[in-house]
Write a structure and sequence with these properties.
Elements lengths: L13 H7 L2 H11 L6 H8 L3 H19 L2 E5 L1 E5 L27 H13 L4 E5 L10 H12 L4 E4 L2 H11 L3 H11 L1 E3 L10 H7 L6 H13 L4 E7 L5 H18 L2 E8 L6 H4 L9 H15 L10 H12 L6 E4 L6 H5 L9 H10 L3 E5 L5 E4 L20 H4 L3
Parallel strand pairs: 1-8, 1-9, 2-3, 3-4, 4-5, 6-7
Antiparallel strand pairs: 9-10
Helix pairs in contact: 1-4, 2-4, 3-11, 4-13, 5-6, 6-8, 7-10, 11-13, 13-14
The structure holds iron/sulfur cluster.
């Protein structure tokens, strides 16, 4: 996982690592350590890090994470619900979608989705993450209807649902304005939206990957509109395909600008491209996912560029695998994502890191890197903290440290 890095990089002191970096590289890291805003050219230099510079980058990101968040490492107990894999959009990087007549196409009934929700509640989940493909004949009312049906039976669950692409499709199918559609979803129980479908927020890249997908401007418009209605969202970036390090930096700075305006992003989630079973990779249109060094760079860069605005940087263990996720959690990230209970999107593209993890397994891995596990809610309030090394004691809520940064506390 650690590529060209010194095998003992996790134990190395940050100052020692800084001393080994090139002077112009170390100057930017010191600016970040001092709380300074990094600009595009700073970001590009960092994004191209190698050797001792890379070591200094990840150690600095880890130090800034420690100063900002502390040593508590969070996760959420959640379940994915992918209600259908039928989709008309045809993104070339997607291994999940199917045509309506495919042998393995599905559209789960509401009864099945309620049964899966019940299982999630019994397993202690606080969140459902609901996303699906875009079937041609979908009734626009389906989106709000599903939320309402789940909400009626399980009002305790936070419904984290519908990417900006699905929101855009819902607008098209219902004929409502964007704001009215968002308000109807909120009234039906929507708690927050996944900031997926962002890929790289640059239309030249988007057209290569998926010409039928919403534009970068439309993605931002939908996110802004959701935040304006008090609906927070995550923010994401898919990397490791056709993009360059310059795209990473521009993408993160765009998210930073949006966050400064709305305060509605709860976290940033880098999503490595899973290539194996995708049309994009098979036709030779992309590289075979990110290298392990690129995984570290992207998570560390996010910490340095976004720290003051989006303080929560999440690893996707489904994309990185557990060793990779733990490495990135020592390179600037502070959130382990969720239990998922069922994962089909990355698996369909060729990921083989599993579909589910228990809270106990997450806590054991968190302890293995010397950090304190805590279960969080979707918007980063802390539900339980496991401060006792044996994991037996659960501190009551009033003794818990406040982890919610400016991002999530501004409006929610
Ligand atoms: S990424 Fe989403 S929109 Fe694109 S083809 Fe797959 S399911 Fe459809």
């Amino acid at each position: 996982m650690t590529g060209a890095l010194d095998p003992a990089w996790q134990e190395m002191d940050c100052n020692l690592a800084l001393g080994r970096a090139r002077p112009q590289f170390a100057r930017i890291l010191e600016k970040a350590l001092g709380g300074g805003d990094l600009n595009f050219s700073d970001g590009v230099l960092l994004a191209n890090a190698a050797g001792d510079d890379l070591l200094a980058l990840v150690k600095t990101a880890d130090e800034i994470r420690r100063r900002t968040i502390g040593d508590v490492l969070t996760y959420v107990v959640n379940r994915n619900l992918n209600f259908t894999n039928i989709c008309i959009v045809g993104c070339s990087f997607c291994g999940f979608s199917r045509g309506p007549r495919a042998r393995d196409a599905y559209f789960h009934s509401t009864e099945d989705l309620l049964a899966k929700s019940r299982e999630a509640v019994l397993a202690g989940a606080t969140e459902l993450c609901i996303q699906g493909g875009l079937p041609k004949n979908l009734n626009g009312g389906y989106y709000a209807g599903l939320l309402r049906d789940i909400r009626r039976e399980f009002p305790q669950l936070h419904l984290h649902a519908y990417s900006p692409m699905e929101i855009s499709y819902g607008v098209e199918k219902t004929g409502l304005s964007l704001t009215d559609h968002l308000l109807s979803l909120k009234e039906a129980g929507l708690g927050s939206i996944p900031g997926t479908a962002a890929e790289i927020l640059d239309d030249a890249v988007r057209i290569e990957l998926s010409p039928n997908k919403l534009t970068a401007v439309r993605w931002v418009e939908i996110i802004r509109a959701a935040h304006a209605q008090g609906i927070p969202s995550t923010s994401t970036m898919m990397y490791g395909h056709t993009e360059t390090p310059e795209h990473w930096v521009r993408h993160m700075l765009l998210l930073r600008d949006v966050q400064r305006e709305t305060g509605g992003f709860t976290e940033f989630v880098p999503l490595g491209f899973i290539h194996t079973k995708t049309r994009l990779y098979k036709k030779g249109g992309a590289r075979a996912g990110a290298s392990s060094d690129e995984d570290l760079i992207v998570h560390a860069l996010a910490r340095l560029l976004l720290n003051a605005d989006i303080p929560n940087v999440q690893v996707s263990w489904v994309k990185l695998g557990f060793p990779g996720a733990l490495a990135c959690l020592q390179a600037g990230a502070n959130d382990f994502s969720g239990t998922l209970m069922e994962e089909s999107i990355s698996k369909a593209a060729g990921a083989d890191y599993g579909e589910s993890v228990t809270p106990g397994e997450l806590r054991a891995m968190i302890r293995s890197i010397g950090r304190t596990p805590a279960e969080r809610y979707t918007t980063y309030g802390i539900r339980r903290i496991y401060a006792d090394p044996e994991g037996h004691e659960v501190l009551p809520v009033e003794r818990m440290p406040l982890l919610v940064g400016r991002a999530a506390s501004a409006a929610y």
